[in-house]
From TrEMBL:
InterPro entries: HAMP_dom, HATPase_C_sf, Sig_transdc_His_kinase_HWE. Keywords: ATP-binding, Kinase, Membrane, Nucleotide-binding, Phosphoprotein, Transferase, Transmembrane, Transmembrane helix. It comes from Microvirga arabica. It catalyses: ATP + protein L-histidine = ADP + protein N-phospho-L-histidine. This is histidine kinase. Coiled coil: none annotated. GO terms for molecular function: protein histidine kinase activity. Its EC number is 2.7.13.3.
Length: 602
């Protein structure tokens, strides 16, 4: 940056906040007809932290695209959460339904076994059986059986004595071991695990009991059902075609299955299900893989009566398929919205970038000092920037004009100042004045001239306040501000008047300090001024009066100060000077014509 007090430099910087963003419009440095363009400044601006922060998002389009992503991605994430929540809700509903279905199936199987137990109890109390009239009992048992695929067998310690599956009178098989009777006592009923019958040679289950005959021996009575009978019971429940229902015995062997029964009946269930069954797990829901390799979600329920377990499984794909469909629809919708958002962001970005490029061209014209007119872009913010650039162009050209005037005025003032300094030097070097005194007087007058110049520099030589000039001249001499009273309206003097009056006030203040009112303790100075409208024009009238100073016996001889004062007022300013030597000090009335000046009542 250049010091505008020492160089003819114009710095113009404009920053405008629009919707939370700051746009640096123009920075100009004009000196001797040369300009530093806005592009060079922007190159500097983009360096350092700003460049590091914006290197990846350096355009309006990229930031609009980022905004599109910021707006869409949370919406898509929320949609994903909704889909997942729907999946969790559906899964919980399916788990509950599976558990209820498994418990219902176990009740159906228990009810079927209950019917068979009731029939078995009725037959076991038959008199024919107790008296070992096997032919009569055989006929009665055949007449009592109403369950399809079921038959009655009776065995003593060595062989079967009744088997309604075979025609009456057929030879019956021998019994080689009694393992099937272990744990069974007279008067109790037990549902067996799956086994292969001696005669039927097919997988079957039995409802067994021990009966004590009249002669004290025991007979083993069973109602046997083929496994496909239990499978038909399972099929009658109407499970969905894709679901898998299975009934396993206490060993974990598959007794019935709703799908592919002929392939899996008689085989162990999956290892984890066998483990659950043997651990006598009452109920539960878990993920598994079926015997035919299908990932499933299954529910298991254990029957309290038979100890068998019912398994109902549904393929996991049926649960996840709706969620995947929803996720696919969400992804398609999100992709479509994202594509549309990107296209719209690109179009909107282009509609913003085009007028912003126009602003760059306008800024270059402003940098060259050319007049510009900002066209309407349809965007309020950019139009405001364009108007600001147009205003900056006008202000810059006005500043150039003023700078030229200032330079011309400065050249003129330098010449006048040098002439004043030359006059001062000739005046102080009078015969009879010692070099030390001459040097002191010359230095004091140069300092007075410098103080006035400093005041003018602060306002770029546009003028200085009359009150400020007086205060600056009294400051080195009157430490006590109560000894100087200034009264008058606010008046801004042009540079020419300020310099001359500053020198005049210096001479009067110096005289008051050396010989007048300010040379004694009670002395004081009163300065009043006013603006008067006279026939010849506007006049500034200043009354300077010293009070309570040392008494003057005779009028002093006019010296250099008096001559300088009279020459400055009457010749340079074409004014009037009334210098009076009163008994208490010097009184002076100065009247100078002035042009229209800024004034304000005090």
């Amino acid at each position: 940056m250049c010091d505008d007090r020492r160089h003819p430099v114009l710095m113009h910087a404009m920053a405008k906040a629009m919707d939370g963003a700051i746009y640096v419009l123009t920075v100009y440095r004009v000196q001797g007809g040369e300009s530093q363009s806005v592009g060079q400044f922007l190159t500097i601006l983009r360096s350092g932290r700003w460049k590091a922060a914006c290197s990846h998002l350096s355009s309006v389009r990229s930031r609009l695209l980022l905004l599109t992503l910021v707006l869409l991605l949370p919406a898509l994430a929320a949609g994903g959460l909704v889909v997942y929540a729907g999946y969790r809700h559906d899964r919980q509903s399916v788990e509950k339904h599976l558990q209820e279905t498994a418990r219902a199936l176990s009740l159906v199987i228990d009810r079927q076994f209950g019917q068979a137990e009731a029939l078995l109890w009725a037959l076991s109390t038959s008199p024919q059986l107790l008296e070992k009239d096997y032919a009569a009992f055989d006929a009665r048992a055949r007449a009592a059986i109403r369950i399809p695929g079921a038959w009655i067998t009776v065995a003593d310690d060595q062989r079967q004595v009744v088997n309604t599956l075979l025609p009456q009178g057929s030879p019956l098989p021998l019994i080689n071991n009694r393992d099937h009777r272990k744990g069974l006592t007279v008067g109790t009923v037990r549902v067996s695990n799956l086994f292969t019958g001696f005669v039927a040679k097919q997988p079957a289950v039995g409802i067994d009991t021990l009966v004590a005959t009249d002669d004290g021996s025991e007979l083993y009575v069973s109602m046997i059902m083929r496994a496909d009978t239990v499978t038909r019971i399972l099929a009658d429940q109407g499970l969905p075609p894709t679901w898998i229902g299975a009934i396993v015995d206490r060993n974990g062997t598959v007794v019935a299955r709703s799908r592919d029964a002929e392939q899996f009946v008689g085989k162990p269930a999956t290892p984890e299900n066998v483990e659950r069954v043997r651990a006598e797990m009452r109920q539960g829901v878990s993920e598994s893989v079926s015997l035919d390799g299908v990932p499933t979600l299954l529910a298991l329920a254990r029957s309290p009566g038979s100890g068998w377990s019912t398994i109902v499984a549904v393929p996991r794909s049926e649960i996840t398929a709706p969620a995947w469909r929803s996720a696919l629809y969400l992804a398609l919708a999100g992709g479509l919205l994202l594509t549309l958002g990107v296209i719209m962001a690109w179009q909107v970005g282009r509609s913003i970038a085009r007028p912003m490029k126009g602003l760059t061209s306008l800024a270059q014209h402003v940098g060259r000092g050319e007049p510009i007119t900002a066209p309407s872009s349809g965007l309020v913010e950019i139009d405001r920037v364009g108007d600001a650039l147009a205003l900056a162009s006008m202000q810059l050209r006005e500043a150039d004009r003023r700078q030229k005037l200032l330079i011309d005025e400065l050249n003129h003032r330098v010449k006048n100042t040098l002439a004043t300094v030359q006059s001062l030097s000739w005046q102080v070097m009078r015969p009879g004045v010692t070099p030390q005194v001459a040097q002191e007087r010359f230095q004091q007058r140069l300092l007075a001239l410098s103080r006035t110049h400093n005041l003018l520099n602060e306002t770029l030589w546009e003028g200085a306040s009359l009150r400020t000039i007086l205060e600056a001249e009294f400051k080195p001499f009157a430490a006590d501000s109560t000894r100087v009273r200034l009264d008058g309206p606010a008046v801004d003097l042009p540079a020419r008047l300020a310099v001359v009056l500053g020198m005049a006030f210096h001479e009067l203040a110096t005289n008051a300090v050396k010989y007048g009112a300010l040379s004694t303790a009670p002395g004081r100075v009163q300065v009043d001024w006013k603006i008067e409208e006279r026939s010849e024009g506007t006049t500034l009238t200043i009354d300077w009066c010293e009070l309570e100073g040392p008494m003057l016996e005779t009028e002093p001889h006019p010296g250099f100060g008096s001559r300088l004062l009279r020459q400055a007022i009457t010749r340079e300013l074409a004014g009037q000077l009334d210098l009076r030597f009163e008994r208490e000090g010097v009184c002076c009335t100065i009247a100078v014509p002035i042009e229209a000046v800024g004034q304000q009542a005090a």
